Amino acid sequence: MAVKKIKRRKARKVTLRFLVFGVCSIVVISAVLGSLSKMWIDIYEKHKEKEYLENRLVDLEEDGESLSIDVEKLQDPEYVSRYLKEKYFYSGDGEYIIRIPQNNSEK
Q1: How many CA atoms lie within 13 A of 6 on its CB side?
Q2: Residue 72 falls within a domain, yes or no?
């Protein structure tokens, strides 16, 4: 009988160790997987943000090119004069502005 009790105690200890080791392993694996999933989500968000910013950079570069063309045009006094006359109805000395309304209904 004493031998059976000792074997049962050893079996319980082994089972308890296995159970504790299993629970600890599950906790560690869960923590690692949770951390990895958070990292992957962060990487995905950064990737999407990078794509958005690259597209924004391209748009801003195009806007910059058109603005530099506008600056070059505004260096020309004749262009500035014509622009002011067309957009703001500016007239020079001895010039008159006659505004003709446009009728969209007539063809």
Answers
A1: 3
A2: yes
**Count of the separate structural domains present in the chain:** 1
Q: Is residue 101 part of a domain?
A: no
Q: Which structural domain range is residue 7 located in? A: 2-88
Does 100 reside within a domain?
Answer: no
What's the whole-model pTM score? 0.54
| Three-state secondary structure of 31-98 | HHHHHHHHHHHHHHHHHHHHHHHHHHHHHHHHHHHHHHHHHHHHCCHHHHHHHHHHHHCCCCCCCCCC
For residue range 30-63, list pLDDT tens digits in order: 999 999 999 999 999 999 999 999 999 999 999 9
Residues 6+ apart with CB under 8 A from 99: 89
Instruction: Answer whether residue 71 is part of any domain.
Output: yes
Distance CA 62, CA 44 (A): 28
